Amino acid sequence: MDGHPRPEAMQDGDYAPLRLHVPEPKGRPGDAPDFSHIDFGEAGAVGRPALDVDAKGTDSYAEALIRVLDDEGRAHGEWADAVSAEEAKTALRAMIRTRAFDARMMRAQRQGKTSFYIQCLGEEAIAVGQAMALRQGDMHFPTYRQQGILFVNGVDPEAMMNQIYSNEKDPLQGKQLPVLYSFKDAGYYTISGNLGTQYPQAVGWAMASAIKGDTKVAAAWIGDGATAEGDWHTGMVFASVYKPPVILNVVNNQWAISSFQGIAGGMSATFARRALGYGIPALRVDGNDLLAVLAVSKFAAERTRRGLGPLAIEFLSYRGGAHSTSDDPSKYRPADEGEKWPLGDPIARLRQHLILEGYLSEEEAAEIEEAATTEMREAELRAEENGLVHDGQGASAKYMFEGVYETPPGRLREQRQEAGY
Amino acid sequence: MDGHPRPEAMQDGDYAPLRLHVPEPKGRPGDAPDFSHIDFGEAGAVGRPALDVDAKGTDSYAEALIRVLDDEGRAHGEWADAVSAEEAKTALRAMIRTRAFDARMMRAQRQGKTSFYIQCLGEEAIAVGQAMALRQGDMHFPTYRQQGILFVNGVDPEAMMNQIYSNEKDPLQGKQLPVLYSFKDAGYYTISGNLGTQYPQAVGWAMASAIKGDTKVAAAWIGDGATAEGDWHTGMVFASVYKPPVILNVVNNQWAISSFQGIAGGMSATFARRALGYGIPALRVDGNDLLAVLAVSKFAAERTRRGLGPLAIEFLSYRGGAHSTSDDPSKYRPADEGEKWPLGDPIARLRQHLILEGYLSEEEAAEIEEAATTEMREAELRAEENGLVHDGQGASAKYMFEGVYETPPGRLREQRQEAGY
Amino acid sequence: MSQTKSNTRAANMIEAIRDGHDVAMERDENVVVFGEDVGYFGGVFRCTHGLQEKYGTSRVFDAPITESGIVGAAIGMAAYGLKPCVEIQFADYIFPAYDQITQEAARIRYRSNGEFTCPLVIRTPTGGGIFGGQTHSQSPEAIFTHVSGLKTVIPSTPYDAKGMLIAAIEDPDPVIFLEPKRLYNGPFDGQHDKPLVPWSKHEDGKIPEGHYTVPLGKAETRRAGSEVTILAYGTMVYVAETAAEQAGVDAEIIDLRSLIPLDLEAIEESVKKTGRCVVVHEATLTGGFGGELAALIQERCFYHLEAPVKRVAGWDTPYPHAQEWAYLPGPDRVGRALKEVMTG
Amino acid sequence: MSQTKSNTRAANMIEAIRDGHDVAMERDENVVVFGEDVGYFGGVFRCTHGLQEKYGTSRVFDAPITESGIVGAAIGMAAYGLKPCVEIQFADYIFPAYDQITQEAARIRYRSNGEFTCPLVIRTPTGGGIFGGQTHSQSPEAIFTHVSGLKTVIPSTPYDAKGMLIAAIEDPDPVIFLEPKRLYNGPFDGQHDKPLVPWSKHEDGKIPEGHYTVPLGKAETRRAGSEVTILAYGTMVYVAETAAEQAGVDAEIIDLRSLIPLDLEAIEESVKKTGRCVVVHEATLTGGFGGELAALIQERCFYHLEAPVKRVAGWDTPYPHAQEWAYLPGPDRVGRALKEVMTG
Ligand SMILES: Cc1ncc(C[n+]2csc(CCOP(=O)(O)OP(=O)(O)O)c2C)c(N)n1
Ligand SMILES: Cc1ncc(C[n+]2csc(CCOP(=O)(O)OP(=O)(O)O)c2C)c(N)n1
Ligand SMILES: [Mg+2]
Ligand SMILES: [Mg+2]
After folding, report:
1. Under 8 Å between Cβ of D172 and D117
2. Residues C34-77: pLDDT tens digits?
3. pLDDT-derived band at A1, boundaries 50, 70, 90
4. CB-based contacts of A417: which residues, under 8 Å, 6+ apart?
5. What is the mean pLDDT of residues B357-380?
6. Using CA atoms, how far apart are residues B160 and B104, in angstroms rounded to an integer?
7. How far apart are alpha carbons A218 and A134 in whole angstroms?
8. Nearest CA among D141, D97, D111 for reference residue D258
9. Nearest CA-CA partner of D99 in C309, B66, C90, A66
10. In this predicted model, what pLDDT tens digit does every residue of A176-201 receive, in sequence order?
């Protein structure tokens, strides 16, 4: 043996014993909500970078929140005039419909009409705002919490409910868990139950757009928790290398089932900042402010469609409800944390703004809400008539054998026969 | 159908057709080497941050190179006095022995004594420098290009050669591909042939040190190319969350077999910068400057062992030889790129420095080289006597059935019998 | 049951698993537990509930949502000398960790020639029957049983769950510990339109207090019989029991419990006696573990077989949502197979 | 061979694969090719050499070292309408992509009920015999054949390699395309101490010019025989040929070529004729595809079998380095198995 005389392992006391650092949220059940660690800044304070800004140019943007609406409902700053009153009203309507749909389905779940549902309470502005900034032919690669896209892009709520009820009219013929929709014509990619997998897929889709010399844009979506998956990184690496037209969204609603964003690394740096390390510029946005969301999304769409490279966006929000109908958040976070979220409710804020500015009357607003409730109630009545899988009226068993391949191989045909379909 | 009237997909010409961006290296075979895109800075220009510096505090460090030795062999700046003359001489000797070993094994491969070898030509300072900064009980999670660690930590070259020759004296009993060593007592974790997997493992090992209240430090190692793997990210996320005592090294030798660092995202941002997005401070170091490597590694060891959290280090270097003996780099990069690498050869630079400062004479230096050559020649003669797998003198087939589990299950015992061992 | 049941208490499978953790952690301070939602909250199925409070955040903690990271970190901890027991929230999410499990955990001992080892338990809820669709229902055992260096086990009672979990944690090698989630609350027999008997009302719903182990590698004969051998594991054990009863066949029902190592002796002995065999599993037929079982049986019991070994399994399709009861093998399908081999 | 060989030229398997790419890319501009080192350099085995120069960097390019990213991006491209054909440098490195392959590529059509599809080819060199140790030698076919929605194929001649690659690229569903790397340069029969016959000297070393396909799902009878059926694929086809010759057994040797879909008709017909069967593969025995084959054969040919179906396979250990020739099934082991089933 030969070599450098290595120092022996030293005595205890030489260095203090190490301890594992396990991040804890500010509040647990029974505690008062505490958001004092977050610097929200002021509406209007953060301006617009150049369309071709690079990662270093967004250093401060990766921290400070882009906000347009203040607490009173006034719009401020450079991003304020990116959204017309007409657009804002369209958005309000889509957000209200999204919430009405969610409410109806939460009720349906309680009534045993479906075993499972996921709402997006408090996050409606994010999906709705970005969907409005994209155009036909573009493609979202959503998670289960971007149903707002569907209400922007003209999908019939009854079709969604048929999917949830897994009945004969379900566009997916009963194959998928409720809410794991696929609506290609609405620019809505088939949702996976496996977190994160859609991130590199979105980047690949955008690469295809560039390879074909098209001008279509992809929107990748992921939650704060799921950014820990390897797939988030591989998507970012591909985006960093080939610079395809993709918007790399992270919806930071601060919770991943029972674990808070610190368990995903969110207390060590913002998720927006993580993109900078790939040389991808990043903006951080108040996700409960439709005007900010839509303005920034337009910027992102324009940048990527112009071939100026990918852009990352972190939407800061708060998961207003339980993770899903299988979850009970009162077991792990203060019950009133959502109500105390300083950035408020996205629908209430936009409504207040439109009324304040005189673009909308209280009556019109009430009408929109009323109409949405009616629409969803009626859609649900129709969907229910098509059957509920839990009443034994699910999509036929024969569909199970279809669509595994374009042409079923012999053994699958045999099995189908054996099964009697 | 109902919803926001989405703009139709627009006409060609509305936006210019997109194009896929595929990064290309500055030079290909036949071109003149060109490193003008890299800013090397000046020796001594980058100082020492505080031991408990946070990620933001290392913003500029993630870009500018920490260098100590200048082109003439003089040491400069705040990092210069971290390494004693004695240590520098020890390092020189380990580096020279590393290179002598490599040379001997490259020759052995040409002679057909082994089918495979990987040298670390030009990167010797990195592994040697960091190994000297750690102490007994710490653990490296190396790739196949950190054999320098073994020459610091007292491993017998003959044992390494027996592994390469896969003979009866091979400590791994012929189970592993040449160079995928395991030397636990030397703080050298079993190397995987699968890139990147050791990164989260290193972090987990460091977490265990913290869980047990020990003071041991882990060193994670990865190449520029392999940082694209999901495992690199999952390791970083765990490090970001639990802040265990781990040094997160990236050896950027600018090539990954035939693909240059741009294909790993290296043209979009430095690899050091990528760590900042996880809230992990990062330093960037001239990997061909032993004094810089060892000084920074000492800093890293001290910081992590004090419980101040992980530190990332990017070592900038150049892969001096072929990827492995199966590779021919003249097919994809300028033949003389390595010679023109502005940061030079780490052994020549350290040698020059020690002679310049009068710590070493030309004769002593020649003696060290001579001794290393002799040592490796003699070790190889001994190893060869133990047999070469390619001469049919590999480790016995019976070992194949051992070590699958602590206790072999019945069917494996049956198979061993069937095979006749 | 291989042990006496003195000092037993009623427990469902979740409580049994929680208790298994508790006993193992109490005895060995090197046992650490982590995974998504397993810390403060105690796991989405509550299998680690209360452990963080008892053992602290250094030994029981939430992990980031990266299954490869969880397993990768656990491998490093095991190399250090700890005994990590990690949870993958659903077996459907184990695939991102497939590389770390099969190329690393399974190979550490071998490739280092014993210098490093990997005593690691990966617990994960498996199987269908909960209307979970493709991503909450799959049974991936066959992609692990093909990997040398791994053990793959699957208990079907609270007693076995606790005893096998302790045995797995004490095992010196990596163990894939599959928990048939449809059995957490009671012995589901595939009759989805009948009310579930809770474990508290079932004879197997009792666990001894404190430490005991159920050895990995031993099958359990659930019912002795003479006409046909049924090999099953997980939920299919109860499906097989009901099917045999309904079909009126005197079946010997073997709960394999441990797929690797496999209790070949018990299998051979039974099939040589009955001369007939039906293998039942939830996973997709083609390439499933049933193929290995059928292959082994015809190799070893060829001259005793009166009929071909028959496999009843999930169809060769992804796991569907609405068609769950047409997909998951139930007593009817198993009964038909029993009749077929009896006349075959 | 299923097609005439007019206008043929000599080619080894690498050249055949390169040519298959070329033909497919020429005919369909939606075909794109990428992977680690496949662009400028043309792949570490040179299977994509010259393609970037011919088709440009938008259609042939180097990829970052992330197998899950490569497959994930390819899935997105396929959803867009492209036909990606990606290379995983060694089958031993396909595991990080296992989630994207099995839970995504294989499931896109099903879960979207046909709205999105995934016409994707994943090429990867498989198998041993090159002294590559654990991480350059494995044969992971069985972890794909268990996954509904995937096709898994493995050619064993230059002719099949080109024709099947074109068929795979034109296929509307994801195909795992395994290339027995030990056959790239010649038909290796396991006799490692004898010189290798290069393809240029072998009758199968010829490929037609231009476009042709070898359909996926059809086996190829390499040798007609009456005494025993040998099922093999990849390198084991040549091992089987030599073994049968050396053992002096009149074996019918079937090269499966396509594991999923499987040519069950050809298998059944042959085994019913010979009454005996030996299955040979390189992968670890337990849980290997041989189990599925043996299970199927005893199910379908039970009353024709004179002896149990015998499997010859890699041992249940990781793939070793020094012990390669004791691990990889060679003519001796296959010959012993042939004798055993003949007397069995
Ligand atoms: C690969 C994988 N691992 C785990 C899960 C289980 N799971 C479903 S949702 C969820 C939390 C996700 O949190 P986040 O990404 O923040 O999204 P959010 O629910 O907050 O919208 C988990 C762990 C999964 N679906 N897929
Ligand atoms: C998972 C995996 N994918 C691919 C390979 C094949 N491979 C071996 S080394 C290498 C290049 C690695 O480059 P880098 O990480 O930069 O390290 P370097 O060789 O430059 O030290 C590749 C692609 C592998 N070993 N493992
Ligand atoms: Mg979240
Ligand atoms: Mg490199």
Report:
1. yes
2. 999 999 999 999 999 999 999 999 999 999 999 999 999 999 99
3. very low
4. none
5. 98
6. 12
7. 9
8. D141
9. C90
10. 999 999 999 999 999 999 999 999 99
Put the strands of the sheet holding A139-141 in their side by side order. A139-141, A218-220, A246-252, A311-316, A282-286
Q: How far away is chain D from the Cα of C327, in angstroms, using its nearest Cα?
A: 13
- HSE-CB of B43 using CA atoms within 13 angstroms: 20
Asked if C76 and B404 come within 8 Å (Cβ–Cβ), the reply is no
DSSP code for D102: I
Interface contact D136, partner B, CB < 8 A: yes
- How far is the C-alpha of B222 from the C-alpha of B243, rounded, in Å? 19
Q: Which residue of B has its CA nearest to C265?
A: B410
- Residue recorded with tokens 């009963």: A174
* pLDDT reported for residue D1: 40
Cα Rg of chain B, angstroms: 23
Tell me if residue D281 is catalytic. no
Q: Percentage of chain A surpassing pLDDT 70?
A: 97
Cβ(D34)–Cβ(D71) below 8 Å: no
Place of tokens 């040979």: D280
* Mean pLDDT value across chain B: 96
Residue numbers in B near C64 (CB within 8 A): 234, 237-238, 241
Q: What one-letter code names the amino acid at B240?
A: S
d(CA B165, CA B393): 9
Beta bridge pairs of residue D9: D207
Quote the CA–CA distance of D91 and D125 in Å, as a whole number. 6
Dist. CA D126–CA D178, nearest whole Å: 6
- Per DSSP bridges, beta strands A246-252 and A255-256 are unpaired
Q: Which of B145, B191, B257, B337 to mutate to test the pocket of ligand 2 (most atoms within 8 A of CB)?
A: B257
Distance from CA of D275 to the nearest CA of C (A): 14
> Quick one: pLDDT band at residue B8, thresholds 50, 70, 90?
low
Supply the ipTM of this predicted assembly: 0.98
Burial readout B89-101 (b: 16 or more C-beta within 10 A, e: otherwise): bbbbbbbbbbbbb
- B92: Cβ contacts below 8 Å, ≥ 6 apart: B290, B347, B350, B351, B354, B360, B365, B368
Distance CA(A206)–CA(A246), nearest Å, equals 6
B27 Cβ neighbours under 8 A, 6+ residues apart: B33, B34, B333, B334, B337
Residues B36/B37/B39/B40 CA torsion (nearest 10 deg): -60
Asked if B199's CB is within 8 angstroms of C72's CB, the reply is yes
Residue of A259, A325, A414 to mutate, testing the C interface (most C Cβ within 10 Å of its Cβ): A259
Write the DSSP symbol of residue B360. Answer: S
Task: Tell me the residues of chain D between 159 and 198 that have a Cβ less than 8 Å away from chain B.
Answer: none
Please report which confidence band the pLDDT of residue B14 belongs to, taking 50, 70 and 90 as the band edges. Answer: confident
Confidence of residue A7 (pLDDT cuts 50, 70, 90): low
Under a CB-based contact definition with an 8 Å cutoff, are residues A139 and A120 in contact? no
Q: With 90 as the cut, is the pLDDT of residue B76 above it?
A: yes
Pairwise CA distance, residues A323 & A318, whole Å: 11
Element (H, E) at C85: strand C83-87
Say what the pTM is: 0.98
For residue A245, whether the previous peptide bond is cis, meaning omega lies within 30 degrees of 0, is no
Q: What angle do CA A119, A239, D114 make, to 5 degrees?
A: 55
Q: Which residue of A has its CA nearest to D69?
A: A234
Please name which ligand lies nearest the alpha carbon of B123. 2
Question: How far does CA C63 lie from the centroid of its chain?
Answer: 23
Ligand 4 (single-atom ion) residues, CB below 5 Å: B 223-225, 253, 256
Structure tokens at D233: 């694929």
Give the type of residue at D32: V
Residue type, C4: T
Chains touching chain B, criterion 3+ CB pairs below 8 Å: A, C, D
Give the position, in ligand 1's atom list, of the atom nearest the Cα of A120. 21
